[in-house]
Amino acid sequence: MKLIVFCIDGMEPSIVLNHQDQFPFFGNLCKTGVYAELLDTEPCGSIGKWLTFLTGASFHEHGVEEGARNCDFPRLSNIRRFESGFLWNVLNQHGYSVGLANFYGTYPAPALNGFAWCEPQCLLSGMGVGFAEREMIYPRELVSDFDVLSYPEIHEPRSLQQLGVGQSWEELKTDPQPLENLLDENYYAEFSRIIDERAAWAAKRLMRYCKKYSPDVLFYYNWDLDKIQHFAWHEESRKTIFNGYRTIERMIRSLCEQLEPENILICSDHGHSSFKDLSGYDYSEVHPEIARFYRERDRSMDQVALSNGTRVIRGQNQGIVSGTHTMKGVLIASGNEIAYEGRMPLLPFRYLHAGVLRLLHVQEGEFLDWERVTPDKNWFEPEPTTIPAMFHELKSLDQQQFDQYWSQEIDLLKKICEADVDRQFLKFTVPCATKIGTLYFDNNLFDEARRWLEYALSLDPENLYPHYTILNFQRLAYLDQAQGSLQSARERYLELARMFSGTEDISRVEEAGSLRKQLKKLEKLVEERYQWVQALEKTIAEERAQFAHLRAEFEERTRWALALEKTLAEERARHAGLQAEFEERTAWALELDRELQQAHRQERELNTPDKYQAESEDR
Predict the structure, then answer these.
(1) Which residues span the domain enclosing 193?
(2) Global pTM value
(3) Mean pLDDT, to the nearest integer, of 337-358?
């Protein structure tokens, strides 16, 4: 194997580079190769950054934001116009076979010389609307072997309500005392087990498919560290975070020892920090547009300060988030084609795409012959946000307002929706209403989200824009599930299935098939709950029967006790009668005995003279 690229989402440079004694495999790669910090060059979320790596296109070219957060996972077709730059296509054209494993944004798994699978979490969580299991992997013959449903899902920590905190977030900002003792060493400690299971699942399939297809280049993506660092970036959970890094290191070391690649590259799209440390972050090294992206994001976070200095925000799970992204990731590279050794200056993340091609001699140049990125470089050229001229005339939305889009987004979108009074421009208002609902959804304002999503559906009763129809139905179903309305969620999935089942458009048929699969999962959940209720009712009935039996036995024993008490009373009365009779007869017997003794004495007194006279006569 020529090259393995491990794309580890959110790997923090300070942990890996400053603690090489705790991560010996990473430390050895640093000693034998090169390492550096990677500077963020894309004002978007992780999915967009990694698509920049895979395609070579900037964020403003491919336009993919944080799809996972919005329950709107991007498809490969969304970026098909960059097909010529896809790493796997370029490498295939130059004779390299490729393994592409676990990336978001690559659905359906592309047909290539090698193998590919998409990150299964989007299918299991229900976020990837229209995703079909058979499209998650290529070659399609691997579907049964891949067994996507066996993938260990990653779950978020418990919500504040589940942790016993009943106050609202506004109340906690003024009185954070209920949060003080929640962030201990056990907060999200179960993640250590989850990441072990997920790493083992992925490593098993990577080894199996690498042995079968022998790819020259392997790309593997993992986002588990990003998850744990969002929820456990506080001192008490330091052990949990380091355990996660050790799991990833063990997995990478094991794969490298078995596959024996000539070159190894480990990279991350960003790092992590606490909100407290982020407040003084230095943005001087990045382009002003990148700095604005991060500053706007930081200002939008509704933070609560705890007494120990930790700052937290409310997560989408209604729990606590203590860590956030920073703009520097990490790069570690070692192997036959790595001519450099030691630490390199700051490098731009965007140029990793070209770096991989240079390392494999597909493009001319050395692996790290890039200029250092500075704020005045013109490599970042954002495309201006545009709007149809009619809306400029109707609402005077000038370009300056669009330059402030991040802080005024909802207001602008609402103005666009209000401008289309006659509903003549649905191709603009339907996406805008959908986006408003999504923004409210992301900020946990679920009532407003539901209102706007339903409004977006009402704008398009004829389903002229099926993509937004699917998204809105899916998000509403998600809200129904989250709020316990399983029947309502089921009905929404049924309506979606009916909506797309009769069409000849193959893509919609596939979406309908996936919706049926999600519906089956939902029905399975309902069935499991129904069986649980039945089992509970059976247990209650058995308990009631046992209680009735015990009650009957108690009543019977009570009657027996009462009868026994009555018998005892009667026996006591009879005994008293016998006692009285005995005493009476005893008295009578004593009286009779006295009378008899008296009679004997009288008889002796009467008979005594005659006796002496008779004796004298006899003599």
Answers:
(1) 3-359
(2) 0.61
(3) 82
